[in-house]
Write a structure and sequence with these properties.
Structural class of chain B: alpha/beta
CATH class of chain B: Alpha Beta
Number of strands of chain A: 6
Strand order of the largest sheet of chain B: 4-3-5-2-6-7-8
Structural class of chain A: alpha+beta
Distance between the termini of chain A: 32 Å
Mean pLDDT of chain B: 95
Oligomer: heterodimer
Number of helices of chain A: 2
Low-confidence stretches of chain B: none
Radius of gyration of chain A: 18 Å
Strand content of chain A: 25-35%
Strand content of chain B: 15-25%
Number of strands of chain B: 8
Helix content of chain B: 25-40%
Order of helices and strands of chain A: HEHEEEEE
CATH architecture of the domain at 3-72 and 106-116 in chain A: 2-Layer Sandwich
Largest interface: A-B, 30 and 25 residues
Largest sheet of chain A: 3 strands, mixed
CATH architecture of chain B: 3-Layer(aba) Sandwich
Low-confidence stretches of chain A: none
CATH superfamily of chain B: P-loop containing nucleotide triphosphate hydrolases
Radius of gyration of chain B: 18 Å
Strand order of the largest sheet of chain A: 2-1-6
CATH topology of chain B: Rossmann fold
CATH topology of the domain at 3-72 and 106-116 in chain A: hypothetical protein PF0899 fold
Number of domains of chain B: 1
Shape of chain A: elongated
Distance between the termini of chain B: 57 Å
CATH class of the domain at 3-72 and 106-116 in chain A: Alpha Beta
Shape of chain B: globular
């Protein structure tokens, strides 16, 4: 359960950026979470709600929302070239069974945008 | 209301801190080993025995990561080496910023080998680069063979798997050949090294591995 710490980092990044833009109150944050990023969306939402309701984050409105945009995993087999959706970070090709596919997508964990005034 | 596009990687601060640590370790020519395992696999006992064996040869330092207490650092200090405890207060792993924060307490210039004993956990610590030279994992025989396929990322990111407590092999169901086979499927570049921190069996292989790692790391 490291989503608490990651959410704290994310909120700090938004806070710093919001200050630069003169935004005092944030109503929505959109994050991209890859299936293979090792971040659990449910735990992330839980962490967000905990911070939102605690009132300890001055710029975050207590009815602010978190949007999670899912990024599906994509890997390419280095032997046969097949592109497939891997179940885990250690991608195994469904066609030839070779592990260690090259990951093309799914590891992203970033803040895409935020809205406020 | 305005919408601001940020496109910021949340792990960016961690990545930057890991690079900072790595540069510092390179400058002071310190070999840094990040040791991970589940709770109770024997990390601290392995360190105690390693310090006893190598303290005439190398100047050793230890960073201990735990959710709470100074107990492990106290055990290490009794061996006469410098130890700093990081109490993560709930976090289930060490991150590179926690490590960077305690480095000033260690006087790296006078440390040849720094061991970072991570929080006992086979999941989260595997996701955080601390800036170390090598990541290794300890698996103890009573835990059984399933740990390797169940926690593939941990065995994928490490380059050595110490199989500890082999003195208990007559009493527990642990198949060393099966462990080798499972590890090959997850990480062909890693290796299994059977040891016992209690009986000392196999421990020389581990010490040889460390000496070689130190030699490689300090080569100009």
């Amino acid at each position: 359960m490291h989503e608490m710490g990651l959410m704290e980092d994310a909120l700090r990044m938004v806070s710093e950026d919001a200050e630069k833009h003169g935004i005092r109150s944030v109503e929505k944050i959109s994050m991209i979470v890859g299936d293979l990023s090792n971040v659990l969306p449910d735990a992330l939402c839980f962490a967000f709600d905990a911070f939102r309701m605690s009132g300890e984050i001055p710029f975050l409105k207590n009815d602010a929302t978190l949007e999670i945009i899912r990024e599906r995993g994509l890997a390419r087999c280095s032997a046969c070239g097949t592109e497939y959706e891997p179940r885990q970070l250690l991608a195994t090709c469904p066609d030839c069974g070779l592990p260690f596919g090259v990951l093309l997508a799914g590891e992203t964990f970033k803040i895409e945008s935020y809205e406020g005034s | 209301m305005v919408k601001i596009t940020l496109e910021k990687n949340v792990m960016e601060n961690n990545d930057r801190a890991a690079e900072f640590n790595r540069r510092l370790f390179g400058k002071t020519r310190t070999l840094v080993i990040n040791i991970m395992s589940s709770p109770g696999a024997g990390k601290t006992t392995i360190l105690e025995k390693t310090i006893s064996a190598l303290s005439d040869e190398f100047r050793i330092g230890v960073i201990e990561g735990d959710i709470a207490t100074e107990r492990d650092a106290d055990r290490i200090r009794k061996k006469g080496v410098r130890a700093v405890q990081i109490a993560t207060e709930g976090e289930c792993h060490l991150d590179p910023r926690m490590v960077a924060k305690v480095l000033p307490d260690l006087d790296l210039d006078s440390i040849d080998i720094l061991f970072i004993e991570n929080v006992g956990n086979l999941v989260c610590p595997s996701e955080f680069d601390l800036g170390q030279n090598h990541r290794i994992v300890v698996l103890s025989t009573p835990e059984g063979n399933d740990k390797i396929p169940k926690y593939p990322l941990m065995f994928h990111v490490t380059e050595l798997a110490l199989i500890n407590k082999i003195d208990l092999l007559p009493y527990v169901a642990f198949d060393m050949d099966k462990a080798r086979e499972d590890l090959r499927g997850i990480n062909p570049d890693s290796q299994i090294m059977p040891i016992s921190a209690v009986s000392g069996e196999g421990f020389d292989n581990w010490l040889t591995w460390l000496r070689k790692a130190y030699e490689t790391c300090t080569k100009p």
